[in-house]
Amino acid sequence: xxxxxxxxxxxxxxxxxxxxxxxxxxxxxLETLVRAGMSxxxxxxxxxxxxxxxxxxxxxxxxxxxxxxxxxxxxTNAAIVVCGDMKKAPDEWQQExxxxxxxxxxxxxxxxxxxxxxxxxxTAVYPAKDRIEIVRRSLNLPDHIIPLNVLPIGFPxxxxxxxxxxxxxxxxxxxxx
Amino acid sequence: xxxxxxxxxxxxxxxxxxxxxxxxxxxxxLETLVRAGMSxxxxxxxxxxxxxxxxxxxxxxxxxxxxxxxxxxxxTNAAIVVCGDMKKAPDEWQQExxxxxxxxxxxxxxxxxxxxxxxxxxTAVYPAKDRIEIVRRSLNLPDHIIPLNVLPIGFPxxxxxxxxxxxxxxxxxxxxx
Lengths: 177, 177
Fold this sequence. Notes:
Two copies of one chain form a homodimer.
Chain A: H1 3-13, H2 27-38, E1 49-54, H3 57-66, E2 78-85, H4 92-95, H5 98-116, E3 119-120, E4 123-124, H6 129-139, E5 145-154, E6 171-173
Antiparallel strand pairs in A: 1-2, 2-5, 3-5, 4-5
Helix pairs in contact in A: 2-5, 3-6
């Protein structure tokens, strides 16, 4: 098994997993996923992120019942919320980058989950003000912490399949013509 | 070699590579990287991206001499520019998501590059208006295509090393306290 083929295969196998088995996701696994997130690049290495790992039933149910696109939280037993830390993005210019940095960290978590045999799905929170407020209140987040998304985590029951999104028309060589 | 360890190792080994050997990056490799990019998730699967793969000396030199943080383009022979396609993001709400979607695609490319034995570095373009204008003019980009970043691609000469960015203080369990 070659490293390049293994990794490319996992990148292409990653999918939005919305159906899970009842197997419990351990704290060890959640920490492994968050470690992958923290190894993402960030603008001038500011690492303007915080990761909330959730494994309490009550909190999962609260978020799952209030966030319309994250109802699968009601059926899984773990989630990660990727947040931007505005104290690490002190000026307006820096603040533009936390979204890019936290999105890269999110993709690391999703790829790591696929590699470990877990499934997840990126449910957007930012920039929807109502969703930000729901997550903020449920998790007691202070004002300088902005949730970008909620990632339900679970063991997939193999209903969800990856899409082939290759589109040669979206690869341009050298200059727009 | 287990899939999970292989992939996690590559995620953690990914680094900003700014020094390259003279070995040429083939179009086959560039296409492999762009395919990885296109397999990223996107909000409601809109795939609001276009990838410009550059292997012409003149274009690399033009960008490398005009973009202050992408001078390494003068010393490599390939690059990928990840762009948002505003025609795939028709309303204001959708437009908020292209940055997240294209950032996830970028991270896929960076991880794929590391897996293949290549190196790259995320040099930001958006939201800096002057940098967007430089890239737009060099690549003849129409108004609805916004460059997010420029990724120089090359074979690393092993000067650049990964950082250990694990910070247990940025992992919070369940609720902010």
